[in-house]
Structures are given as C-alpha cells and as structure tokens.
Amino acid sequence: IPHNELATIHDSMANMLKSLDDAAKVSADPPDMIPLALAQTIHTGQCGRPRVEIDPNLLETALSMRGPTQLATLFNCVPRTVRHCTLEQNLVEPGPPVYVDYTDEDRNSVHLYTATSRDQSGLTDEQLDTITQKILKVFPLFSRRMIDSHMKYLGHRVPRRMIEESYLRLIHWRIIFHAFIDGFSCFITGVRASNNNRAETVLNLFLEIIEEHDTPSQVREGWDMVHTFGGSKNMSPVYNVCIERLWWDLTSSSSSKWKQFFQDLEHHDGLNP
C-alpha cells in the first residue's frame, strides 16, 4: 500500500471512530424545550451565600416522593437549604427548640434542653428475645447493628446493651470466639472459643497474649456481634481489614464445619445443647 493511501486509511479510521464516539453521546430523543429551572439563585448583594429559592408547588410534590437529602442533588444545593425552604413555605411543622432560656430565682439564665428522642420501648426480656429470634430467622447473618436498625424499623427503641444480651441468650451452643491480631503484620496473637462473653474472659486472654508477645502500643476493639458457629464474635470496626479477614477465614475453614458437625449430632444422635 502506498504511503499516502495508508495515511488516508488511518485518518479515515480515526475520523470514523471519533464520529461513533460522538454519536454514542447524542440522545436519540433530544429535548425540544428549555430545561425546567428547579431552583433559582438570588443574589441579594449582601454578605454570605446567595439565596436559593424553590417553587413551593414543585417542592411540595417532591417531598411526597423523596426526603431533603435526595432532593438536594436535584435542586443543586445542600439538604439544609431544602429543609429551610420547607420551613419558610410552611410545608412542614418546625420541631421543638433545642433549648429554652429559663431565669431562676437568683436571676441566673439557664438553658433547659429539650429531649427529641422517643421513649424507650418497655419490652420484657422474653418479648425482646422473641422479636430478635424472628429477625434472625429471616435474616440469619444480621449483626447487632443491623438488628438494632430493624428494631427501630419495627417501632421498638431498645438500648444496644439489651440487644447484645438478647443476642447472647439466643446463641444455640453458646460458643463465642474472641481473637486478637496485629494490625500491621496481620499476625494472629490469640484466638479462643469460650462459653461466655464476660469482660474477664476477654481480659484473661489478653493478659496471656501480653505475657507471650509483650504489651502492644495500642489496642482497637469493637463489639459488633456477628452470628457465626451458632454463636457470636467480637470484631473490630470495618476499617480493620486484618480482623475482618481473620473472621472470614475462621468461619470458612473451621467454625462452619464444626457447626455442621454439631447440627448432625443434634438431628441424628440426640445432642441437647
């Protein structure tokens, strides 16, 4: 192929590919009208950010479908601006004040803070265990935080301590794993299966680890209860990759097999946990 024809072929292919890329970005049904202005920015000439105004009818209709956080992207503003607009246009009722100024007998001004949270549910341990058991039956992999969120969805406001206690009471074989791992090298310093989740049990394991591996420079700990091995485990927050990986390896390589073994003994040989 002559040099000039080869250059023509390369240029033609490049132009063809560019045309295809441009065509992919063009809508098959282009709009024939100017886009609707959902929010207007008003420059008042005063200090501070310009004012954002949203059409009341449009905002009322949008609030019936989404909350301020989702509508903020639509109106190109922050969620607080959407909430301020709803209050100014009387679309929602304002909440109670954070505090009220009160003057005592000695003429001292005191802030009386008002509680905005709902009262805690008066569930008994038996009622809480029944609800937790139903949740775990439908969602067996739910952690304590997920159970707490589902409780709120059901309309129950329960302290996390009570949810932890209920979770532990429902452990089938009462086998609980505690583990320590080095966050830098991912070296496992200690793993133990216990029949309780008391603080002294974890402390004894930690003291034994210190005797063998010396005192660590810092310790990170979490109480996210995760259903595994018919029991639970103490795990660090999600950003601790080493302990997360350890729980996965422990569950997949060991505890899941022991769980299946105990279930077979219970179903076929009359094991009573």
Automatic annotation (TrEMBL):
Domain Integrase core: 167-272
UniProt superkingdom: Eukaryota
InterPro entries, alphabetized: Integrase_dom_put (IPR058913), RNaseH-like_sf (IPR012337)
A Pfam entry, by short name: rva_4
PANTHER family tied to this protein: CLR5 DOMAIN-CONTAINING PROTEIN-RELATED (PTHR46791:SF5), EXPRESSED PROTEIN (PTHR46791)
Name by which UniProt lists this protein: Integrase core domain-containing protein
Biological source species: Paxillus rubicundulus Ve08.2h10
